[in-house]
What does this fold into?
Amino acid sequence: MGFFEKLFSGLTKSRKKMVELEALFQDYEPDDEDFYDELEELLVLSDVGGEAAEEVVRGMKRLTWDKRYRRGEEAREGLIGLLTDQLNVGESELKLNTKPSVILMVGVNGVGKTTTIGKLANQFKNEGKQVLLVAGDTFRAAAAEQLDIWAQRAGVDIVRHEEGSDPAAVVYDGLCAAKARGSDIVLIDTAGRLHNKANLMNELGKIRRIIDRELPEADVETLMVLDATTGQNGLLQAKQFLDTAGLTGIILTKLDGTAKGGIVFAIANELKLPVKYVGVGEGIDDLIPFNAENFVTALFK
It folds into this structure.
């Protein structure tokens, strides 16, 4: 199954929500304010978010005037274009041009962070990259063991310490190992930091300073893993991480288990962060690179 087919399949629940939008365009009248009110309401109910929904509706009104839309099909295509443009807030591809490059993974417990690291490691390994995992989550019981299982499954190296060790020390050892072994990519797991735990957020800042000190020229992607099923609550978490962690992008997991695919638009509008990957299943190959045009097309197909 190709990337688009996986995305299309994973968005089944979200796409059902869009059926109501399709019905709305069947009764499209360019000067009917009720149409725009209903459009905004449906977007909000799809978890697009209030601000993003308002912006889309304003854009639809401008397009209707500029393009002289008279048919629902024209307006529908205009909406697809607006939604696609809204998702283009940054580079969706990872910037990993140095050797080594670093991916620092953050996020609260339960979002699928460790599993996502394993899936990324598998992808990079299949691309011929030499990958090193660093078990920086020393707080959660058996976190390192779980990451070790993924390292074995993907066939990559791992650096880990005992549970309760200093996470920064683990990261330091991991970076030293990466330089000594000639690793291409270092994937660092971190504790499931709750956004109201100041000490844990400070620890994350410490880890980032070690990366900058030990690999000052390296490309570093700091990716936050969000669970799509949490909807707007996930946005609140991300806002807390944004300043502390210096996020460069989002990985959205469990998109196949929710009708809240619209959260992608809220992320782009409110955080101004690109979505880098989306998880559309439990399989090791079900983490796919994000593409705005493909995503919107899959929603409306």
